[in-house]
Protein backbone atom coordinates (compact mmCIF):
# COMPACT_ATOMS: atom_id res chain seq x y z
CA UNK A 1 0.00 0.00 0.00
CA UNK A 2 1.24 3.49 -0.72
CA UNK A 3 2.45 5.87 1.96
CA UNK A 4 -0.36 7.69 3.75
CA UNK A 5 -0.15 11.12 5.36
CA UNK A 6 -1.08 11.13 9.05
CA UNK A 7 -1.80 14.49 10.70
CA UNK A 8 -3.58 14.92 14.03
CA UNK A 9 -7.05 13.59 13.34
CA UNK A 10 -6.74 12.69 9.66
CA UNK A 11 -5.29 9.97 7.50
CA UNK A 12 -5.10 10.79 3.80
CA UNK A 13 -3.43 10.25 0.48
CA UNK A 14 -4.64 13.06 -1.78
CA UNK A 15 -2.87 13.21 -5.11
CA UNK A 16 -3.47 15.28 -8.20
CA UNK A 17 -1.95 15.86 -11.63
CA UNK A 18 -1.81 19.57 -12.45
CA UNK A 19 -0.77 21.31 -15.67
CA UNK A 20 -0.34 24.97 -16.56
CA UNK A 21 1.31 26.77 -19.45
CA UNK A 22 3.23 29.94 -20.19
CA UNK A 23 1.23 32.87 -21.49
CA UNK A 24 0.78 32.67 -25.27
CA UNK A 25 2.45 29.22 -25.02
CA UNK A 26 5.81 30.91 -25.63
CA UNK A 27 8.69 28.42 -25.45
CA UNK A 28 10.69 30.29 -22.81
CA UNK A 29 11.29 27.49 -20.29
CA UNK A 30 14.69 26.47 -21.63
CA UNK A 31 18.21 26.37 -20.24
CA UNK A 32 18.76 28.33 -17.02
CA UNK A 33 15.14 29.52 -16.91
CA UNK A 34 13.92 25.92 -17.01
CA UNK A 35 16.33 24.85 -14.24
CA UNK A 36 15.41 27.84 -12.08
CA UNK A 37 11.70 27.19 -12.59
CA UNK A 38 12.14 23.61 -11.37
CA UNK A 39 14.16 24.81 -8.39
CA UNK A 40 11.54 27.42 -7.44
CA UNK A 41 8.69 24.90 -7.67
CA UNK A 42 10.59 22.45 -5.45
CA UNK A 43 11.19 25.22 -2.87
CA UNK A 44 7.51 26.21 -2.88
CA UNK A 45 6.38 22.63 -2.40
CA UNK A 46 8.86 22.08 0.43
CA UNK A 47 7.66 25.25 2.18
CA UNK A 48 3.99 24.28 1.80
CA UNK A 49 4.37 20.63 2.85
CA UNK A 50 3.54 19.31 -0.62
CA UNK A 51 5.22 16.12 -1.85
CA UNK A 52 6.23 16.09 -5.51
CA UNK A 53 5.68 12.60 -6.87
CA UNK A 54 6.83 13.57 -10.37
CA UNK A 55 7.25 16.80 -12.27
CA UNK A 56 8.15 17.93 -15.77
CA UNK A 57 9.11 21.43 -16.87
CA UNK A 58 8.65 21.50 -20.64
CA UNK A 59 9.53 24.43 -22.89
CA UNK A 60 6.04 25.98 -22.64
CA UNK A 61 4.22 24.23 -19.78
CA UNK A 62 4.61 22.44 -16.45
CA UNK A 63 3.21 19.06 -15.34
CA UNK A 64 3.24 18.12 -11.67
CA UNK A 65 1.96 15.05 -9.87
CA UNK A 66 1.72 16.05 -6.21
CA UNK A 67 0.46 14.80 -2.86
CA UNK A 68 -1.05 17.40 -0.52
CA UNK A 69 -2.73 17.84 2.90
CA UNK A 70 -6.53 17.76 3.30
CA UNK A 71 -6.42 21.33 4.63
CA UNK A 72 -5.00 22.55 1.32
CA UNK A 73 -6.95 23.14 -1.87
CA UNK A 74 -5.74 22.78 -5.44
CA UNK A 75 -6.55 26.29 -6.62
CA UNK A 76 -4.55 27.85 -3.75
CA UNK A 77 -1.63 25.51 -4.37
CA UNK A 78 -1.51 26.38 -8.08
CA UNK A 79 -1.96 30.08 -7.32
CA UNK A 80 1.09 30.01 -5.03
CA UNK A 81 3.19 28.05 -7.52
CA UNK A 82 2.30 30.25 -10.49
CA UNK A 83 2.50 33.55 -8.62
CA UNK A 84 5.75 32.97 -6.77
CA UNK A 85 7.52 31.36 -9.73
CA UNK A 86 6.39 34.12 -12.10
CA UNK A 87 7.66 36.86 -9.84
CA UNK A 88 11.00 35.18 -9.14
CA UNK A 89 11.68 34.17 -12.74
CA UNK A 90 10.97 37.68 -14.02
CA UNK A 91 13.19 39.20 -11.30
CA UNK A 92 16.08 36.89 -12.08
CA UNK A 93 15.76 36.94 -15.88
CA UNK A 94 15.10 40.51 -17.09
CA UNK A 95 14.97 39.33 -20.71
CA UNK A 96 11.52 37.88 -19.93
CA UNK A 97 10.18 41.45 -19.64
CA UNK A 98 10.45 41.80 -23.43
CA UNK A 99 7.93 38.98 -23.98
CA UNK A 100 5.89 39.50 -20.82
CA UNK A 101 5.60 43.26 -20.48
CA UNK A 102 2.41 42.95 -18.40
CA UNK A 103 4.22 40.87 -15.75
CA UNK A 104 1.93 37.90 -16.45
CA UNK A 105 4.26 34.98 -17.10
CA UNK A 106 1.76 32.11 -16.88
CA UNK A 107 -1.47 31.74 -18.86
CA UNK A 108 -4.75 32.13 -17.01
CA UNK A 109 -6.09 28.86 -15.62
CA UNK A 110 -4.77 25.34 -15.18
CA UNK A 111 -5.81 21.73 -15.58
CA UNK A 112 -6.10 19.26 -12.71
CA UNK A 113 -7.05 15.61 -12.48
CA UNK A 114 -7.30 13.59 -9.29
CA UNK A 115 -5.21 10.46 -9.12
CA UNK A 116 -4.94 7.61 -6.70
CA UNK A 117 -4.49 3.93 -6.16
CA UNK A 118 -8.20 3.03 -6.41
CA UNK A 119 -10.79 3.55 -9.12
CA UNK A 120 -14.38 4.79 -8.96
CA UNK A 121 -15.52 1.23 -9.63
CA UNK A 122 -13.56 -0.06 -6.62
CA UNK A 123 -15.16 2.52 -4.30
CA UNK A 124 -18.66 1.77 -5.61
CA UNK A 125 -18.10 -1.97 -5.22
CA UNK A 126 -16.93 -1.47 -1.62
CA UNK A 127 -19.97 0.66 -0.82
CA UNK A 128 -22.35 -1.87 -2.41
CA UNK A 129 -21.29 -4.39 0.27
CA UNK A 130 -23.09 -2.17 2.79
CA UNK A 131 -26.43 -2.30 0.96
CA UNK A 132 -29.20 -4.17 2.75
CA UNK A 133 -31.69 -6.14 0.69
CA UNK A 134 -34.56 -3.74 1.51
CA UNK A 135 -32.71 -0.61 0.29
CA UNK A 136 -33.64 1.06 -2.95
CA UNK A 137 -31.13 1.43 -5.73
CA UNK A 138 -30.32 5.01 -4.75
CA UNK A 139 -26.82 6.36 -5.04
CA UNK A 140 -26.86 7.05 -1.28
CA UNK A 141 -27.11 3.80 0.69
CA UNK A 142 -28.85 3.40 4.06
CA UNK A 143 -26.95 0.82 6.07
UniProtKB/TrEMBL annotation:
Matching Gene3D superfamilies: Transposase IS200-like
SMART domains per UniProt: Y1_Tnp (SM01321)
Domain Transposase IS200-like, chain residue ranges per copy: 11-130
Provenance organism: Wocania arenilitoris
PANTHER family: TRANSPOSASE FOR INSERTION SEQUENCE ELEMENT IS200
Protein name from the UniProt record: IS200/IS605 family transposase
Gene designation: tnpA
Domain of life: Bacteria
Gene Ontology biological process terms in this record: DNA transposition
Record-linked Pfam families: Y1_Tnp
